[in-house]
């Protein structure tokens, strides 16, 4: 007799064979209860089929990880309804075989029960047990499949009815449902160079508009040039040129300035050309330097401190002789004449003002001498208007020829020698064995001056290796450009000339070597050692120097970035904590 036990269709899903369903209904037509039981069994199996299909479908939808392979200890194949059906069909087939053999050998299960009824009752019980077993087996397999899909081998999975939860699933859903984080600012430039990487992850972005990544790429380019990696340097420069903007923010302006300096270093002018000298020695550069001293409080306060030190050292002296090796456009000396007039003419009208003599030392002849005469005439007119007697002289000669006679020194004069942004432009032992810098200091020491003032930019730009020198220039000129934003309009003509002056200074310091490099700035510690070797001792800058500078600094409105650093023999002015200029006095 054919069995009516339901089985699984290997082709997928749950159901009955058509023949089995007809035989079941035919065998139990005489027994309505049996037919109803078979129909209920059919309905229950279909319902179970739908529930299991929905559960499997839900697990598929909840899978958020793409799996390339499975590493489960149990032999579960990848997601396939054929594999699951085949496994279940194998079990069902073995059970069917056992039941068929049992029904053939034992037609009666108990006494007093007809054969057909006994088989129907037996089939119903067996169907319920096997169906429960299949449900449990299928649930376990589906849970195992979900565990593999969610990669939860190391987490516990809890089951409550048909709900399956896990920590990883909750975290994943929370991430998917939460709004995405805002994208990082498009500011960084990944450096193509294989040298030193950017610190603080600054080279992890992708656009060249931020200062930090552009500055890091500038440093990487300088390193590549030092190592001879021309291709890397050229690739970096191509990116940096797109980030540079001579009229942009301070960082973009710095990038433009430094890119020009690096390009000039890679493509130097012909040997012996006078272009490097005219870059920082032309009349336009001198005029632009005067604008820089007026526009930047760091330079202005340094010159102011030097004037105050000269006034303090020469007070109550009827004759003051000032020897200046670089008067520029005469701005510092004009301020000094004003201070002398205020001290002696306005405050003490009964006392006659001292006789002031200014000697402008000019080692060259030609246009420089003509320009100095024009400046001297302006200073003389200013002194006459303020009631100060002034004599202006120009001395041409070499450093070796400087002495009391050539400098027109007279007995009874209070001699003051002013080095304002000059000594750093004089060659030292790293350029020539003659060492003009130390020779000049020894000559000045032999004059027995009442005071020597020294004002210089605070930057290690002389004997340091190129990469270090370039990094110093980036930090120094970057701070200068930022400070200019606080005192000068970006789009003004004066600002453009000032920045052109800074660009020439930077290019000469970075791109040139040997005698072609004129800009050779030092830090104060090196100046102190050099002055000490020449026989000078530091002069204490008291409150007569520091207090007026502090008062002038406090008068600057909306410029909290400028700072003063006081030491015993020097006064440093800077921007945001970085000292840019240092004024000191010596005897």
Automatic annotation (TrEMBL):
Keywords: Transcription, Transcription regulation. Residues 374-406 are annotated as: Leucine repeat II (LRII). Residues 188-214 have a biased composition (Low complexity). Residues 511-587 are annotated as: SAW. Residues 151-214 are annotated as: Disordered. The keyword NAD does not apply. It holds the Pfam family GRAS. Residues 159-170 have a biased composition (Polar residues). InterPro entries: TF_GRAS. The keyword Transcription regulation applies. A motif (VHIID) lies at residues 320-324. Residues 178-187 have a biased composition (Pro residues). Belongs to the GRAS family. PANTHER family: OSJNBA0084A10.13 PROTEIN-RELATED. This is Scarecrow-like protein 8-like transcript variant X2.
């Amino acid at each position: 007799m054919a069995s009516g036990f339901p089985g699984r269709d290997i082709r997928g899903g749950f159901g009955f064979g058509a023949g089995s369903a007809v035989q079941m209904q035919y065998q139990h037509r005489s027994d309505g209860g049996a037919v109803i039981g078979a129909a209920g069994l059919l309905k229950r199996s279909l319902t179970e089929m739908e529930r299991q299909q929905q559960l499997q479908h839900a697990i598929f939808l909840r899978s958020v990880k793409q799996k390339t392979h499975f590493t489960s200890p149990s032999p579960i194949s990848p997601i396939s309804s054929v594999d699951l059906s085949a496994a279940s069909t194998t079990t069902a087939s073995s059970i069917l075989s056992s039941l068929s053999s049992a029904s053939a050998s034992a037609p009666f299960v108990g006494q007093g029960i007809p054969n057909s009824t006994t088989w129907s009752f037996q089939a119903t019980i067996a169907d319920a047990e096997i169906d429960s077993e299949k449900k449990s087996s299928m649930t376990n397999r589906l849970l195992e499949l979900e565990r593999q899909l969610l990669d939860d081998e190391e987490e516990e999975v809890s089951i409550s009815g048909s709900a399956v939860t896990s920590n990883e699933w909750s975290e994943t859903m929370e991430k998917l449902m939460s709004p995405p984080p805002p994208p990082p600012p498009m500011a960084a430039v990944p450096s193509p160079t294989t040298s030193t990487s950017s610190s603080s992850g600054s080279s992890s972005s992708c656009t060249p508009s931020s200062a930090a990544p552009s500055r890091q790429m500038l440093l990487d380019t300088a390193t590549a040039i030092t190592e001879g990696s021309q291709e890397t340097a050229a690739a970096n420069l191509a990116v940096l040129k797109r980030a540079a903007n001579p009229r942009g923010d301070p960082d973009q302006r710095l990038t433009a300035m430094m890119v020009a300096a690096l390009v000039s270093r890679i493509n130097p002018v012909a040997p012996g050309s006078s272009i490097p000298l005219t870059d920082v020695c032309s009349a336009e550069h001198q005029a632009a330097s005067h604008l820089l001293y007026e526009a930047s409080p760091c330079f202005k306060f340094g010159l102011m401190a030097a004037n105050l030190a000269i006034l303090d050292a020469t007070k109550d002296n009827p004759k003051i002789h000032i020897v200046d090796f670089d008067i520029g456009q005469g701005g510092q000396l004009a301020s000094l004449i004003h201070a002398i007039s205020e001290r002696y003419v306005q405050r003490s009208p009964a006392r006659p003002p001292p006789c002031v003599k200014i000697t402008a030392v000019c080692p060259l002849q030609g246009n420089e001498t003509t320009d100095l005469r024009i400046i001297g005439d302006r200073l003389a007119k200013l002194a006459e208007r303020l009631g100060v007697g002034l004599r202006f002289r120009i001395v041409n000669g070499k450093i070796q020829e400087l002495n009391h006679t050539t400098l027109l020194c007279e007995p009874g004069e209070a001699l003051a020698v002013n080095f304002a942004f000059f000594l750093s432009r004089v060659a030292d032992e790293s350029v020539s064995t003659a060492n003009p810098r130390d020779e000049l200091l020894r000559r000045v020491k032999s004059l027995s001056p009442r005071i020597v003032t020294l004002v210089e930019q605070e930057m290690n730009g002389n004997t340091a290796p190129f990469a270090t020198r370039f990094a110093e220039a980036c930090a120094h000129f970057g701070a200068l450009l930022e400070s200019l934003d606080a005192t000068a309009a970006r789009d003004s003509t004066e600002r453009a000339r000032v920045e052109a002056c800074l660009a020439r200074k930077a290019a000469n310091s970075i791109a040139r070597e040997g005698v072609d490099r004129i800009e050779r700035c030092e830090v104060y510690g090196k100046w102190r050692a050099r002055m000490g070797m020449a026989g000078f001792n530091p002069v204490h800058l008291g409150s007569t120097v520091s207090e007026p500078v502090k008062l002038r600094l406090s008068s600057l409105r909306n410029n909290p970035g400028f700072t003063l650093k006081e030491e015993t023999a020097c006064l440093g002015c800077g921007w945001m904590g970085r000292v840019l200029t240092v004024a000191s006095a010596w005897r």
